[in-house]
Design a protein that fits this description.
This protein is of the alpha+beta class and about 270 residues long. The protein has one domain: Aminohydrolase, N-terminal nucleophile (Ntn) domain (Glutamine Phosphoribosylpyrophosphate, subunit 1, domain 1, 4-Layer Sandwich), CATH 3.60.20. The protein is built from five helices and 14 strands. It is globular and about 80 Å long.
Amino acid sequence: MTYCIGIKLDAGLVFLSDSRTNAGVDQISTYRKMMVYEKPGDRFMVLLSAGNLSISQSVREILQVEKLDNGDLPPLTIWNAASMFDVARVLGSAVRRVYEQDAKALHQAGVDFNASFILGGQIRGEPMRLFLVYSAGNFIEATRETCYFQVGESKYGKPVLDRMIHPRTPLDEAAKCALVSMDSTLKSNLSVGLPLDLLVYEADTYATDKIVCIDDQNPYFAMIRGSWGQKLREVFESIDAPEWKGEQADHPLLVPQSRFEPMTKITHAGERVI
């Protein structure tokens, strides 16, 4: 399995992915899930993938040469598309082409066609955009209300993103939040693992030098892993314990009026007591 995050902010884009793949507890490998497509001064695009590794690798290879019919104009590719929306269309077409080639054989082998992608970037002449592309080749776009996407093992790292990320979040804060989200996932799910790839893109630059591979020796991530757990414990311990007979409590747990019917208890003798 894997875990990938793409975040779209006013200031730029943040991408983070792990690199673990596994086909059982004794077949664990490392494959990068992040690909960068760049034409200096014209476009900068990042692709993150999750799901079946053979499918995602095939899609990435086809994507570089995929051509989409464009009427009387030259065929549409990721290198001549005028918008990120059209790049997402080309990616969807590549996914469907792999499906046509491999889905039947995979099904016969008992393997689901399972792959999903986060695609984001900027083409000169339009704002930054971020898309989530499904295994059917269809896609949705990030908005100001929903400014990040996750693929893979998303549930463990979602709460901190929901609480902290909004369009005005600074890029470095978003990168820190993404790493905390990844640390939460690493803590709870063994199918996600180091090393990580982190990329931060500043709006209207069409390039970046903020890209790093993070392993278990990385000092900043080691600090995140240590301090985040400690800070959580400190905050947890600072919250008052529940008071069951708290007539004078500021936040009593047991209150005389409830919106629900009382719970029914059954005694050892089989009598119902409310």
